[in-house]
Amino acid sequence: MTKFNEPLLFDTYLRPQIWGGEGLARLLGKRSQNPSIPGEADRLTEPLLFGEAWELSTLPEHVSRVVSGPSHEKSLAEIWRQSSGAMPKSDGACGEFPWLVKWLDCHGGLSLQVHPDDEAARTVLGQSRGKSEAWIVVGVEPHARISTGLLDGVTREDFESHLATGTVEKCLHSFEPRVGDCLSLPAGTVHTARGVMLAEIQQPSDATFRLFDWNRRDPSGRSRPLHREWGLNAIDWQQGPVAPIVSTPLALVGEGISSEALLETDWVRLERFTVTRPWTTTRTGVLTVWMILAGNAVLLDVSNGTRYELSCGATVLIPGEVGSIEWSPSSADQSCTLLSIGQARLR
Q1: Are residues 198 and 300 located together in one domain of the fold?
Q2: What's this model's pTM, rounded to 2 decimal places?
Q3: Of 234, 266, 282, which residue constitutes the final position of a domain?
Q4: In angstroms, rounded to a whole number, what is the distance separating the alpha carbons of residues 254 and 263?
Q5: Is residue 53 located within the same domain as residue 193?
Q6: Of 23, 193, 276, 336, which alpha carbon lies 20 to 30 A from 172's?
Q7: What's the burial of 92, exposed, middle or buried (CB within 10 Å: 0-12/13-18/19+)?
Q8: Which one, of 96, 85, 7, lies nearest residue 58 by Cα?
Q9: Phi, psi for residue 242 in degrees, rounded to 5
Q10: Dihedral through CA 192, CA 22, CA 204, CA 64, nearest 10?
Q11: In terms of domains, do 208 and 330 share one?
């Protein structure tokens, strides 16, 4: 086993999407590093609409690589495989890295979609796992809207009828999102979002069934394919509306630090911290991922004094071999908001 003793920063993989916008570059500083889009990294304005910024991935579409330090150019897959103290490999996933971590700019509106569970992914797609995910709202536009789950009483027959007539919004539980909202979307949840910037943490799968795409077409006049029959079979018809999570305060971590538990499922634990002063945390032996949701931050590796200046939108992986780290806002008169991503506590 190899020891990884420093915080790790990875490349960002940007994906153009018909529903994307310019917010990933404008608000989060994400620039294209895609070799398939020559020259984009050097432009001040992205000419394409980017919908997704993949921060941590071991999927074939893109395997994340370290951008600096002693582990420069090592892939996330290598690091996960070689690390001696990353995390108990207890998720039944053949030891694969347990998450796909992204930022989403849903400016133009996601398709109405649903993700399969493990059984549907195996039988329909021949893939090893389905996809549950979680959203954290980090930005909203004036007419932002999120739909998660179906209204009470909506049946498959109702839903199919409204799909056929283009009135499916009448079936959806919709609300006006606020910055900070956290949503848990288990596999089988019908969902869409428009006019929002999201941090998305999901199981390591890209399996999506499109149910409706708002009758839009690309510049060539083509519509994207739908997967209605697969999607209808994947929906959890007993679920009902899905509302933002009511967070739970964590044990007091000190003056000037607010902390809350957002979500704990069998595949992830999410906690949020707002930091107004230097704050030291020790999670030796357990890999943790941190995303900066708001503000700019300084990360200090306490063991060697190395400082990392990180902007809003940064994602950093702290291997289990790293000891204490210290977070602080980049300016004494400001704050920063951090999302901690870790494995659910073993029960």
Answers
A1: no
A2: 0.92
A3: 234
A4: 22
A5: yes
A6: 23
A7: exposed
A8: 96
A9: -120, 115
A10: 180
A11: no
